[in-house]
């Protein structure tokens, strides 16, 4: 398409169909004089049928609207990397929102190129992380595209003001009462904030959870699952080969049934504030835990220790919206190299809110029974230990004699001189 239609420039809008982005479809036309291309990305939201989103945008005057199914691409190109890197921000949160944004932005930029759009618009607030992620990814993929963030610009400061504006401009909005929480969800889990959760002393109410049973009300009998991995990627569940998308969907159901995956944390946002966040991540938490257990068998100790630092940096880099960056590419290269032999099966017991790894096996295991056993078949050479300890402890032995607790050198002389001067 040409850059302009009927003399108007185009804007590609990241569109969800909710109140904010629905108002934006009309606002961008009236206040900015732009033709709107409304794009909704399906990355595994609870609402799977997004056809209504397309039609709603058309009804409000969008020149083009599409709901794109990105679920398989999300699983295969994004979540595989997250699993390989044991992606857990602040060692707690499996990055569900931060992971979906780069893929959505990639599609928005591609569509902007195809339609000749000069602008991309998003519905992120001026206080959260997602504005940073959307705009940083856009800048990385095409610095020439101009960005619009209506929520940071318009004078609609409350939901009531938005509703009034919508009514005055024939924008259809939900007729039900506003939800007390802000929700973002995708295949990797759900993020819940606002409402009573803004006070960290409040225990999260039971009604915020939709993917997980209360651990107290979960089944009284544990359930065992076995996940197979090839080169760090989950490829089977209970012996049945599965693509990653259906495997994650099934894991969400099975682990959620047992109350697994609830997170309640104080989180450090990119914009410099702490936030009380709740997450519901049954499949993601369990898969990352099982994957890491397999790594402990297949990677040597030095690589495991160094990879833990890399995993933390990878998670922070992704959380900060730097998916398309030189550092992220370098971290991916390291992580990918470590996964060549992370192949095997991991067994876990699911029971009342916990997933406990109960078994690990791999054809590439670095665990040698003959070296580890204290029983018959032990091949470890104990006579080598004395010489090893002598060499290993030589630096600390030398230090102790010269500077450590047994030293009688400079520090003792200094104390004696100080005593004489005080006398």
Q: Please, how many helices? A: 15
* DSSP E strands, number: 15
Shape from CA axes? globular
Percent helix range: 40-55%
| Cα gyration radius (Å) | 27 Å
CATH architecture level-2 label of the domain at 4-178: 3-Layer(aba) Sandwich
Low-confidence stretches: none
Which percent band covers the strand fraction?
15-25%
Q: Under the CATH scheme, which class of the domain at 4-178?
A: Alpha Beta
Kindly identify the CATH topology of the domain at 4-178: Rossmann fold
Overall mean pLDDT: 92
Amino-to-carboxy terminus distance: 93 Å
- Which structural category do the helix and sheet elements fall into? alpha/beta
Largest sheet: 6 strands, mixed
Looking at CATH, the homologous superfamily of the domain at 4-178 is HUPs
Order of helices and strands: EEHEHEHHEHEHHEEEEEHEEHHHEEHHHH
Catalytic activity: L-citrulline + L-aspartate + ATP = 2-(N(omega)-L-arginino)succinate + AMP + diphosphate + H(+)
EC number: 6.3.4.5
Pfam families: Arginosuc_syn_C, Arginosuc_synth
Binding site for ATP: 14-22, 123
């Amino acid at each position: 398409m040409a850059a302009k239609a009927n003399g108007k420039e185009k804007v590609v809008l990241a569109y969800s169909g909710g109140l904010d982005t629905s108002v934006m479809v009309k606002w961008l036309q009236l206040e900015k004089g732009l033709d709107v291309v409304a794009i909704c990305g399906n990355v595994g939201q609870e609402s799977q049928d997004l056809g209504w989103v397309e039609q709603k945008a058309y009804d409000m005057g969008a020149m083009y609207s599409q709901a794109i199914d990105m679920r398989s691409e999300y699983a295969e190109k994004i979540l595989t990397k997250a699993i390989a890197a044991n992606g857990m921000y602040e060692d707690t949160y499996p990055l569900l929102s931060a992971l979906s944004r780069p893929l959505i932005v990639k599609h928005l930029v591609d569509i902007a190129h195809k339609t000749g759009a000069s602008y991309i618009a998003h519905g992120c607030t001026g206080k959260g992380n997602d504005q940073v992620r959307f705009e940083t990814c856009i800048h990385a993929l095409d610095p020439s595209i101009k960005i619009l963030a209506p929520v940071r610009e318009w004078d609609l400061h409350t939901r009531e003001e938005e509703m009034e504006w919508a009514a005055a401009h024939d924008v259809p909005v939900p007729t039900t009462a506003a939800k007390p929480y802000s929700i973002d969800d995708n295949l990797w889990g759900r993020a819940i904030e606002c409402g009573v959760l803004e006070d960290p002393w409040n225990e999260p109410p039971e009604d915020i959870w939709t993917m997980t049973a209360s651990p107290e009300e979960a089944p009284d009998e544990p359930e065992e699952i076995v996940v197979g991995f090839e080169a760090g990627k989950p490829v089977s569940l209970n012996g049945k080969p599965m693509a990653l998308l259906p495997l994650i969907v099934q894991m969400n159901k099975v682990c959620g049934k047992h109350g697994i995956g609830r997170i309640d944390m104080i989180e450090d946002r990119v914009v410099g504030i702490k936030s009380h966040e709740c997450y519901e991540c049954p499949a993601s938490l369990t898969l990352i835990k099982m994957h890491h257990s397999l790594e402990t068998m297949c990677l040597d100790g030095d690589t495991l220790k160094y990879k833990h630092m890399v995993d933390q940096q990878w998670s922070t880099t992704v959380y900060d919206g730097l998916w398309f960056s030189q550092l992220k590419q370098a971290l991916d290269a390291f992580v990918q190299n470590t996964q060549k032999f992370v192949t095997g099966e991991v067994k876990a017991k699911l029971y009342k809110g916990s997933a406990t790894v109960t078994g690990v096996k791999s054809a590439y295991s670095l665990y040698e029974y003959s070296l580890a056993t204290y029983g018959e078949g032990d091949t470890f050479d104990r006579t080598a230990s004395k010489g090893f300890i002598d060499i290993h402890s030589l630096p600390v032995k030398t230090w102790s004699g010269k500077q450590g607790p047994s030293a009688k050198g400079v520090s003792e002389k200094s104390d004696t001189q100080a005593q004489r001067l005080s006398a």
